[in-house]
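Module 6 notes. Inverse folding takes a fixed backbone as the condition and produces residue identities as the prediction. Think of it as a translation problem where the source language is geometry and the target language is the twenty amino acids. Below is one complete input and output pair. Work through it position by position during the lab.
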């Protein structure tokens, strides 16, 4: 029963990298590598994992700055998709960007990734355009859809950055 499942967020740590790589492999034709994830940790990107009963079932990585934030990646293990968890995880990323004072958040997504595009639209992202042949495929290349969302200045960021 779902109510019995203990769901919690945590910062992505080195010990989570292998599980996140597994999620990547079931999500992307050209998944991120261990080096990509280590690089995110070294750069101090805002990186969360979602755990259920202590096991990592999702992750998201955000590069944050005052001017703009970039959602670099988000994914859930395939058996946990379509239950509202992605929306919740993305909500956490939006909140972090807002609290840090970002004015806008940007992302790129494969043109064929209807589920992710629907998720982004559901949380208020707008389409800005296409980047032609941006992603590799097993055969050929695929366009990226560029999306963004303007963020409100939160109470916290207002109090940090006023004057
Ligand atoms: C994209 C992803 C993170 C979404 O997470 P999720 O938990 O499956 O999505 P949710 O259940 O929270 O649903 C959020 C929205 O996505 C859309 N969505 C979810 N499942 C969908 C489906 N099967 N078909 C179409 N739209 C769908 C809906 O708009 C939904 O909003 P709604 O419930 O109000 O209708 C997840 O599917 C995933 O990990 N996919 C593989 C990795 C990936 O593509 N990452 C994006 C890289 S840019």
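Target side of the pair, the amino acids:
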């Amino acid at each position: 029963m779902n109510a019995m499942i203990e769901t919690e967020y945590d910062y992505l740590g080195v010990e989570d990298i292998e599980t996140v790589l597994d999620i990547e492999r079931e999500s992307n034709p050209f998944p991120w590598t261990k080096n990509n994830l280590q690089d995110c940790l070294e750069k101090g990107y805002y990186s969360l994992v979602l755990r259920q009963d202590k096991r990592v079932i999702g992750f998201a990585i955000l590069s944050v700055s005052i001017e703009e934030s970039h959602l670099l990646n988000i994914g859930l293990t395939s058996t946990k998709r379509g239950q509202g968890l992605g929306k919740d995880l993305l909500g956490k990323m939006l909140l972090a960007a807002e609290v840090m004072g970002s004015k806008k958040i940007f992302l790129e997504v494969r043109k064929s990734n209807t589920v992710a595009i629907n998720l982004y639209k559901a949380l208020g992202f707008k389409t800005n355009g296409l980047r032609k042949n941006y992603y590799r495929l097993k055969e050929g290349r695929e366009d990226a859809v560029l999306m963004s969302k303007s963020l409100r200045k939160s109470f916290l960021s207002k109090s940090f950055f006023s004057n």
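Reference fact for the lab report: The helical segments are 17-25, 34-43, 85-99, 114-122, 155-161.
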